[in-house]
Amino acid sequence: MKKIKSKDFRVSEKINLKDIATLETLDTDEETLKKELEDTREKLGEFQDTLYAHGKYSVLVCLQGIDTAGKDSLIREVFKDFNSRGVVVHSFKSPTDLEKKHDYLWRHYIALPARGKFSVFNRTHYENVIVTRVHPEYILGENLPHINSVDDITDEFWNQRFEQINNFEKHIAQNGTIIFKFFLHLSKREQKDRLLRRLEKREKNWKFSPDDLKERKLWDNYQQCFEEAINNTSTEHAPWYIIPSDSKDAARLIVADIMYDELKEYKDIQEPELPEEIKRNLDDYKNQLENE
């Protein structure tokens, strides 16, 4: 089986999504991929326990990708061995009326993980430079000063948003949040097959919406917006990783391995030592309990 190396997926220079493969088999079979994932997610679960005990860092996992890219099932499989109190998943839909009364980062800021915990953003703050860029009319709903029509939304506006997002991520990274950003890179053909499965399998019908087909017609627009967002916001403290996602099993393992390999480099994340006085009296405490 091919060894997974974080650097092979990390964005460290300008990329063109058309030049990046959407399929990675890791030169092995489905059963091996699942077994490897079991091993890695168990280690991630153990790391989360240590992270909680240490209490100085948090971890934010951001998942972006076109419809059917596999975000939901990846979350289910990768975080299966976590203490349920140690990870919170946020699925960001269209902003509510309350959220629209605040700036676009507000709802993401209040969903950030507490120290010792993981948060997973299923769709993220990047929707504000992807979906809204494909559909700029959505920006009008934010009721921003000086934005009265789509014509007021210029390239300068989007560049400003990239800068704001970079500043947001830099701020939380400097305050102890470890950031992972994964783009699940899917081929148009594989999306077609997955949409067809939603229609053909009765138990999957509920996942399908006619809007999926409308958005699919905007495939090229979305790919361009994903590409520009990645190129403008992959930084040292918050790098993007592009994950080939035509194989769900391989994508899940790649994401899990990247997280574990990067997190174990934080050598200061250790369970705290007991005070010396308590350590000296452990046998006494044990005897008290045993002799009740």
From TrEMBL:
Lineage summary: Bacteria, Pseudomonadati, Bacteroidota, Cytophagia, Cytophagales
Record's keyword annotation contains Cell division: no
Coiled-coil parts of chain: 23-50
InterPro entries associated with the record: P-loop_NTPase (IPR027417), Polyphosphate_phosphotransfera (IPR016898), PPK2-rel_1 (IPR022300), PPK2-related (IPR022488)
Every Polyphosphate kinase-2-related domain range: 29-267
GO annotation, biological process: polyphosphate metabolic process
An MF annotation (GO) of this entry: polyphosphate kinase activity
Name of the protein in its database record: Polyphosphate kinase 2 family protein
Record's keyword terms, sorted: Coiled coil, Kinase, Transferase
Family: Belongs to the polyphosphate kinase 2 (PPK2) family. Class I subfamily.
Keyword match Nucleus: no
Domain of life where this protein originates: Bacteria
Pfam name, any one: PPK2
